[in-house]
Structure formats: C-alpha cells, structure tokens
Amino acid sequence: NGGSGIVIVRYPIAAGVAVENLAASNITQTAADFYASMNASGAVYSVSVYWGANNGTTNAGSWANTNWIGAFTNVPTTNLVFDVASGLNPGTAYYYAFRGSNAVTNVWAQPSAVFYTFGPPIVDNDGGATSGIAMATLRGTLVFTGGAPTTVHTYWGDGDGGTNKQSWGNVYTN
Predict the structure, then answer these.
(1) How far apart are CA 15 and CA 68, in angstroms?
(2) Quick one: which of 151, 127, 148, 149 has its CA closest to 138?
(3) Do the beta carbons of residue 33 and residue 113 sit within 8 Å?
C-alpha cells in the first residue's frame, strides 16, 4: 500500500540558551586564556570566539580574529576556553566574545569581555596643570599598572624636563 502526504519536521528552538563571557586568566605580556560558559540544552551549536584590540560587539565582521572552539550538542552547561599562546602586544586592551550559532540563530555572549596584557604603566596627565598665583594644581591618573605594583612619581619645575627625570626641579613620589 502506497501513499503520499506531507511530513512535518519540527526543530525545537531551545529556550534559555545562554553564552556568558568569563574573565580572562593566565594573562602575560603576550598571551592569555579566554573563558566562557554555555548552556545549550536541547540544541546544537557551533561555537567560536571573536577577539581583538577593538570591541566588535555582535558584528562578526568587526572582529580582527576568529577561532572555532567546537560543536556542542545538547550541552546542559559547559565551560569554554581558548588559549592565545603568543602574539598579543604588551600593555594593550583586548576584547573577546564567544558566539554559538546554528541554522536558526546566533547567540552572542554580551557584553564583550575586556582585559589588559601586562606592560608598562599608563598615566593620563588629565590636561596637565592649572596654575594660580604662587600655586598650581597638578592632575594625573594611573590608568593601567602594567600588571605589577606601581609607584607614581610626579615631576614639575620651571621648564619642561621631558622624559629625563634629572631635568626636572622637583619630584613627588606616591
């Protein structure tokens, strides 16, 4: 007995699928490990990590680098890791976001995670000094310690001593 008919195939969209960026670790001057967690019960996802010195948010084409992590089927909860063994620039901010994708949807971990590779300290002079009669207010912010304990020295004088600390008339150490 033959027959004909319509076969309906339903692909469930998993409710509650989530990817969350976690903090980077094992950070050095040129390397780091990126972490995320994923819950994709009842779904199939191909997972990649997008990363670079600029935050591409949820636009895959805006990221400088993309690396495939793997395919995951019906995973209740798992941790994801990507190791950048070398090639990062010292003292640089890097962003990353993991993305799970399949034929139906893309799920981005947002907001993007950010970390700084170790490097030299970064100071912002906040516009320099404001002077008055017989006084001046010096401004500065330690933006990045370089990943190590940091001492701030404030130099000032009658002339610009540039980067030669002996050329300045005064110093304050904090």
Answers:
(1) 24
(2) 127
(3) no
What distance in Å separates the CA atoms of residue 76 and residue 99, rounded to the nearest whole number?
A: 16
What is the per-residue pLDDT across 59-112, written as a single tens digit (0 to 9) for each? 999 999 999 999 998 888 899 999 998 999 998 999 999 999 999 999 999 999
CB 87 within 8 A of CB 77: no
Q: What is the pTM of this model?
A: 0.68
For Cα atoms 124, 168, 172, give the angle at the middle one, nearest 5 degrees.
60
Give the distance, in angstroms, between the CA of residue 49 and the centroid of all CA atoms in the same chain: 11
Task: Enter the DSSP assignment of 63.
Answer: -
Neighbours of 96 (CB within 10 A): 26
Q: Which two tokens stand for residue 5?
A: 């008919």
Q: Give which of 50, 32, 63 is closest to 100, Cα–Cα.
A: 50
